[in-house]
């Protein structure tokens, strides 16, 4: 299994936390513009889910978006939430939501994990939920397997270019959260790969 690895942009900005302390949701004021549905200009806002409680709160919206896309079973809320429940230990959620006029139109279901070699952390990796599993307590040798296939962004048809453009902008502005992006089980014809 080959992984695509992208280096972090040099640009680093700090994320500003929302004053709501009940959930760990970060909001950014960034706006991306692109020709979208019916040729009209679309503007997006982003939110970042960083805890399980907030993950659980977006279940209905996730299910609704999945019904309106061409997503695979490995992108469903149930699969992603179950993966996180069993493999999220020692990892940090970083699910990026994209909204148009308050409506969820895209999800980039990431987490941040670490690469370790003989007990030493060598990098912080931004990966898609469902990616290959490496046991964090191991020494990094021969301990990996893949429970998922066909990982990708989840995007409402017509918003693909706008969401991928906004995602690239977000990743460029928030390079302080990761050292590299590791894309595993992402098909060449995926929304994410087409947008890179």
How would you summarize what this structure contains?
This protein has 196 residues and is of the alpha+beta class. Mean pLDDT is 76; it is low at 8-41 and 138-143.
Large-scale geometry? globular
Mean pLDDT: 76
Q: Provide the succession of SSEs.
A: EEEEEHHHEEEEEEHEH
Oligomer: single chain
Low-confidence parts = 8-41, 138-143
What is the makeup of the main sheet? Answer: 8 strands, mixed
Distance between the termini: 20 Å
**Helix-and-strand structural type:** alpha+beta
| Cα Rg | 16 Å
Number of strands: 12
Number of helical stretches of at least 4 residues: 5
Share of helix, binned: 10-25%
Keywords:
alpha+beta, 196 residues, two-stranded antiparallel sheet, 8-stranded mixed sheet
């Amino acid at each position: 299994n080959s992984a695509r690895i992208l280096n972090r942009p040099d640009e680093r900005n700090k994320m500003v936390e929302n004053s709501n302390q009940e959930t760990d949701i970060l909001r950014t004021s960034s706006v991306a513009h692109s020709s979208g549905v019916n040729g009209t200009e679309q503007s997006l806002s982003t939110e970042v889910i960083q805890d399980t409680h907030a993950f659980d709160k977006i279940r209905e919206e996730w299910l609704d978006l999945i019904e309106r896309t061409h997503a695979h079973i490995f992108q469903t809320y149930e699969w992603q939430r179950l993966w996180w429940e069993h493999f999220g230990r020692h990892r940090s959620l970083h699910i990026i939501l994209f909204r148009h006029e308050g409506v969820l139109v895209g999800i980039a279901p990431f987490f941040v994990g670490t690469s370790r070699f003989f007990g030493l952390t060598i990098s912080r990796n931004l990966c898609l939920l469902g990616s290959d599993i490496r046991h964090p307590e191991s020494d990094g040798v021969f301990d990996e397997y893949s429970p998922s296939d066909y990982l990708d962004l989840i995007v409402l048809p017509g918003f693909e270019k706008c969401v991928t453009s906004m995602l690239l902008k977000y990743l460029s502005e928030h390079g302080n959260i990761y050292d590299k992006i590791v894309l595993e089980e992402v098909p060449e014809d995926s929304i994410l790969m087409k947008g890179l």
